[in-house]
Predict the structure.
Amino acid sequence: MTQVVLVGLPGSGKSTVGRLLARRLEVPFADSDHVIEEQIGGSIREFFEREGEPAFRDIEAAVLQQLVRDHHGVLATGGGAVLRPENRASLRHAAQVVYLRSSPEDLYRRLRHDRNRPLLQVEDQMARLRELFEARDPLYQEVAHFTLDTGRTSVNALLSAIVMQLELAGYGGAPPPGSTNAPP
């Protein structure tokens, strides 16, 4: 079965949309950040502070490789999953990749009080979000099969747009009830 992978900046809705999309498609859901936290035995923020970003990116790459190989369903990735070329290549090859594109302004409205995202623990969050967007938007575009601007779009509208794009791409999701055929 083809996987569906959601990429985008922190706060773009990958986990929320991913859970609901998996439910709609009747497939399993995984969040790479949650898998990483299980493996490191604590929060990503604490690991980041203690070990640094390079060590975190090594673990993230290993977890992504494992999930691409073993998880068959919807996968929400961390915002920096696209930073390494090998991650971009494996995600694009193994899955239908959806980029949930959010402007720095929209993200700021959602995240300005969030204290759990390590890269946003800075004095000027808006400037940091703009930097992240400028650096990562081209990488998300490179890996994505299609892009949806989240803006102020409702979650239900996003879900419908994703399902429509997946159908156009030939992704069938779960087999019909009672079917013994594996999905494409």
